[in-house]
Structures are given as C-alpha cells and as structure tokens.
Amino acid sequence: MIRPVLARRERVVPATQAAGFVLGVVVALILGAILLWVSDHSPAEVYERMFDSAFKGTDSLSRTLERATPLALTGLSVAVAGSMGLWNIGAEGQMMAGAIVATGVAMMADGLSGPLLIALMMVSGVVGGMALMIGPALARSHLRVSEIITTLMLVYVAIRVVEWLETGPWKDPESFGFAVIEPVPEQAALPGLFGRANIGMLIALGLLLVFWLAVSRTAWGYELRLAGSSPDTARYAGVSLRRKVLTALLLSGGIAGLAGAVQLTGSAARLESGLSNGYGFAGIIVAALALMRPSGVAVVAFVFGAVQVGGQSIQTLGVSSAIADILQAMILFGALVAVVFFNYRIQWSGPGGGSSIAESGEPDLAGEVA
Amino acid sequence: MSEAALIGLFVATVQFGTLVFLAALGELIAERAGVLNLGVEGMMTMGAVSGFMVGLETGSPWAAFFAAAAVGSLVGGFHALVSVVLGADQVVSGLALTIGGLGLAAYVGRNVVGERPETQFTDLGIAGLADIPWIGEIFFDQPPVVYLTVLLGLAVWFVLARTRLGLAIRAVGESAATTDTAGHSVMALRSVAVMVGGAFAGAAGSFLSLYMAPGWTEGMVAGRGWIAVALVIFGAWRPGRLALGALLFGFTLALQPRLQTFDIEVLGLDVSSISPALLGVLPFVLTVVVLVIISWRHRHRPSVAPAALGLPYRREER
C-alpha cells in the first residue's frame, strides 16, 4: 500500500517560526472569513473595521499597545517557565493575585506620593503572583506534581477570591449597593504616554529586554535552558534541578502578578473579577508562538493586541467579539501546522519504498521511550 | 440538615460524578494511547453548546447527546491531526483547543443564550429498585446518561484490559516504536483513541447543558474539564480508580453549592455565613491537595503514567 509519511527536509525554510507565524495569521484570517461568511457577515467589512480600529491613527495604535502590554507580560511569564520546559497556564490567576495584593497595599498606603505608591504596588503585584505560584512550584520541584493542572486550578481560586472581596470585605461603601471595590487612589494611575498607552508598556519592554539578556547571555540562563532540554546533563554539570524549577516557576508567577498590577494601575482603575480578561490564557498562545523567546513575545503580543482591539470594535457591527479568541487559537494552529511542513515534506512510501522499518536496520526499541 | 437535603446531595453527587467520570474516561483512553489532550475543557464546552442547540432544534435529548459526542469527536480529531499525524507539541495543541473551543462555542451559541429546552432527559425510575428508601432515589432514579456512563466505564475497562485492541492501545502508550514494529498503525490507534476520548468529553458537556444546568451560557463548563484531566492522574490511568475519584469529586462539586443551606458548623464556624464565592474554591483546592497527597505517597515509586505520554512519534526519527 502506498501511503504518505512525513520526511525531514534536508534544507529547512529560513526563519521557520517567523514564517510560520505569518502563515498562521493568513490561515486564521481565511478560516475566520469563512466563519463570518457562513454567519451572514461581510468578511471584508469586518476585517476592515478590525484593521482600522487597531492601526489607523495614533489613538487606535495606542489601544493596541494598551492591550499588548499585559499580553507581553503574561507571554513573558509563560515563556520564562517554558524556557525550561515547564508550563505555567495559570498566569490568569497570578494576574489576579498580583492585583489583589497591589489593591490591598494601595488601601493601606493611599497617603503616599504617586511614584512611591506605584513602585510599591508593582512590587506587591510580583509578590502576589509569586504567592499564588509557591504551592504549584514546590509541588513540582519536590513531588513532580504536574504544574499544568495545579497552576490552572488556582486560576479559579483567585477569581473566586476577587468575587468574594467584591461582595464582602472590600465592597465600596459609596457604591450605592453595587458589588464593586473602591478605585485605586488617583495618584496610583500609571502616567500615560500617548492616547491610551501608558508607561506599563515600557515596563513590559524593559522586562522583555532583561530576560532576553538573562536567558541568552548569562550562565544562569544557559543552566535554565540546559535543565529544560536535557535534565540529566544539567544534573551531571552540578545544576540543582529543584532550585531551577522553583526559580523559573516563581519568576513566572511574579511576572504574571506584575501584569496584574500594571493592568490595575494602567487600565482598570479598580480590582474586579474581569480584570485579567483572558490575558493570562492568551499569554500561553503568545509564548508558544514565540517559541518561549522574549523577542518573539513582543512581536506576537503586539499582533494579538491588535486582534483583540479589532475584536472589540466589531461588536458595533453586530459581530461577536468571540471572533478574536477564535482567530488567536487559529493563528497558533496555523503556525503549528505550517512549521511542521517547513521542516518536513510529504513522501509517498510504498512497499519497499525508502523509509520502511525493515530497511532502517535493527529497530532501536528503547529509543522511543527515552 | 433534613433528610431530603441529604438525599438531594447524594443524588447530585452521582450526577456530578457522572459528568466528570465521562469526560475523564475519554481522557484516560487518549492518555493510555500516549496522547495528552489538554483540550477537554474546550471539547466539553463545544459539546455543551452543540448538544443544547441540537436539543432545541430537534426536541430529542438523545439526538442532542449523540450530536454532542460527534462534535466532541470532531474537535478531538483536530487535536489528533495536529499532534498525532503531524506530530506538533501535544501541550500546545491541547491548550489551543481549549482556548479556541471556548471562543468558538461562545460564537456559535451567541443566539441561544437564555433559551430553555422543551424536552430533556427524564429520570429512569427502575422498576422495583427505585422505591427502596435512600438507595432507590440516589442510584436507581437517575437520568439514562448516568447508567450509560457506568456501562461505558465497564466497556472501557473490558476493552483496555481484556482485548487485543486494548493491548495495542496500551502498548502504543508505552512505546510507539515497539507497537509500530509489531505491525499496528501508531497513527490510527492514537487518532482513534483521541477521537473516542473527544466523543466522551463532548457527550459529558451535553449532559451539563441538557440536564444538569439546562441552557447555554459562556464558560458554563467552569473548569470541570480540567478537573477531569486531574482525575486521570488521581485514577492512576485505571477506569476503576477513576470511578472512585469521580465520586469524590462529584461529592465536592455537589456539596459546594449546598453547603450554605446546611445548618452545620465546622470548627465552631457557621458554614452558612461563608460567602458562596469562597465556597466555590473547594473543588479546585481539593484537586490540588489530592494531587499533592498522591504524589507524596508515591514519591519513591516510579511513575505509573504511560511511558510515551506526550511524546510524538515519527517513524523516521526513532
């Protein structure tokens, strides 16, 4: 029987992942257009509105950057854990935890001057994110409990805690019965840059730069990547895997917590259960598309920021903003598939054709398992 | 606490247990074949919305149930195509399936939010048995999906443990290369396992939207797909232990919304005074605690997870 098999290309496409990302965007837009078309919307009209609202004029661009900021931070959070093969899929919850602690600190220290209070809230955000991560990190480093499940479970915990704070202990007495928490003090608002973009964007860019340097240019970063790609080699070289797992996960949680504090002071104005707004989950896709590299995170976060701003804007056309979520997932799937075909080609193998088991010598049965 | 309230708690325990068991059973099949599918939450959500919509359209809960299973299997097939056939990262593909599935479900179901189905599953009062006090109401007066799920559990156990097909599935989850050499198609075994698993998850989602909480709202699966993923670890990849775990989690899920109405004190604290939002964290905290406890108990033993779980297979790269 002649059947297709994937054979590794001898010459792979240069800049594979970048090309895959671009193709992913194209594939997502085509599939999205089909979805829009079957639900009686004009794809051209919808896409034009999305594009204009995300890129046309400085105000639109500032909205894209405003959304790209938390995406870059959560993307970086996932990427830091991902650079040693760990999956923090609870950035959504750590954002909330960061925002909770930052709000608590702002309530206690609302007499402080702006810059001091903002700095304090940013640190609190990091602490909050780390606090939510400490359990999963210890469970992973010492007991090998899957961090995928524990980090995700704590998302639901963090969101419920915010709902509890809204209805109970932190309910704003001046809210006329609405279950909302009082806004953060005015002086805690992050200074704006232009339009809706604020210095949170610079914080995110700075952190991306720091991590790019740390991961790719320092011994610490080398050990981190080594521990992820070949744990045995790392252990032989004297790297403490437990400590590396702990640091990577705690840093990851801390960055997501910072994203929460930035969102709180930059865009949200008050702690609410919708504050994390799916940024933590989207951060997983951002990091995966960026192959866990800080430079890639910046680019993908910007594109995703635009997709989300666009998704919001088309609601006035009567189109559900869920299109944005679908497009983001489709971009990832498109890129995954594209990258496979950049590295492999389809080969039709028949009986006795090039790549059957019988011709490849003694099958190494242990190879697969290891 | 009244007797009726207590019986109600156990009736709900069986139903929530069914919900997570059915989804977890599907994930167990996929994982025994070596494929991690983190898209359970997405497949359940797609099953919930499509089942509900077919139910609205046809008025037949069974048509809705099987349509949801078909949709779940289709979504699972997407994961199989990307991660099994093309060999992309299973974690990434599964997560994208969940995120994309939630988005697609929200889009597809945008016009049926708030609608109520005309017909739904009716409880099967099993003749003779349903009249037994307590036991009858809890075990023998449930909707048919509960009994179907029990049968599916037995069938999965039988197929995995007692048939050649089951042996092949387990083998491909331990070592794909060995299974390939033995003449089985790794792609076919794994893809079918993932698609059957998806069907189970989709069906479970429709049990939620057709019977347990009739209707469709965004995010209605609310993390229970993830609990199903955790349950597979808890059940040590075995259907029997999975069922036990499902009852434990079913109990917690059933208890959480009822705790407030029970007039009980825990450590001197009146439970009814605790905010429902805080009680809502119970199932999720329990999941984490349980995972930590079993890992602590098994810390000196080798892992019981299928050895090839999460590893893509390409014959040319063995």
Strands of the biggest beta sheet of chain B: in what spatial order? 1-2
Integer average pLDDT of chain B: 90
CATH 2nd-level architecture of chain B: Orthogonal Bundle
Helix content class of chain A? 55-70%
Largest contact between chains:
A-B, 59 and 59 residues
In DSSP terms, counting alpha (H) and pi (I) runs of 4 or more, how many helices of chain A? 14
- Outline the biggest β-sheet of chain A: 2 strands, antiparallel
Query: What Rg of chain A do the Cα atoms give?
Result: 23 Å
CATH class of chain B equals Mainly Alpha
CATH topology of chain B: ABC transporter involved in vitamin B12 uptake, BtuC
Indicate the radius of gyration of chain B in whole angstroms: 20 Å
Strand percentage of chain B: under 5%
Largest sheet of chain B: 2 strands, antiparallel
Low-confidence stretches of chain A: 352-370
Written description of the protein model:
- The complex is a heterodimer of chains A (370) and B (318).
- Chain A contains 14 helices and 4 strands.
- Chain A is mainly alpha-helical and 370 residues long.
- The C terminus of chain A is likely disordered.
- Chain B is an all-alpha fold.
- Chain B contains 13 helices and 4 strands.
- In chain B, helix 1 crosses helix 10 and helix 10 packs across helix 11.
- At the A-B interface, strand 1, helix 5, helix 6, helix 11 and helix 13 of A face helix 4, helix 8, helix 10 and helix 13 of B.
Key words describing this protein structure:
heterodimer, A: 370 residues, mainly alpha, two-stranded antiparallel sheet, 14 helices, 68% helix, globular, disordered C terminus, B: 318 residues, ABC transporter involved in vitamin B12 uptake, BtuC, two-stranded antiparallel ribbon, 13 helices, 3% strand
Secondary structure topology:
The complex is a heterodimer of chains A (about 375) and B (about 325).
Chain A: E1 3-8, H1 16-38, H2 43-55, H3 57-82, H4 91-108, H5 114-143, H6 147-167, E2 192-194, E3 197-198, H7 200-217, H8 219-229, H9 231-236, H10 241-268, H11 279-289, H12 294-313, H13 322-343, E4 344-349, H14 365-369
Antiparallel strand pairs in A: 1-4, 2-3
Helix pairs in contact in A: 1-2, 1-13, 2-3, 2-12, 3-7, 3-10, 3-11, 3-12, 4-5, 4-6, 4-10, 4-11, 5-6, 5-10, 7-8, 7-12, 11-12, 11-13, 12-13
Chain B: H1 3-32, H2 40-58, H3 61-85, H4 90-108, E1 124-125, H5 135-139, E2 141-142, H6 144-162, H7 164-174, H8 176-181, H9 186-212, H10 224-234, H11 239-258, E3 265-266, E4 269-270, H12 276-279, H13 282-297
Antiparallel strand pairs in B: 1-2, 3-4
Helix pairs in contact in B: 1-6, 1-9, 1-10, 1-11, 2-3, 2-4, 2-9, 2-10, 3-4, 3-9, 6-7, 7-9, 10-11, 10-13, 11-13
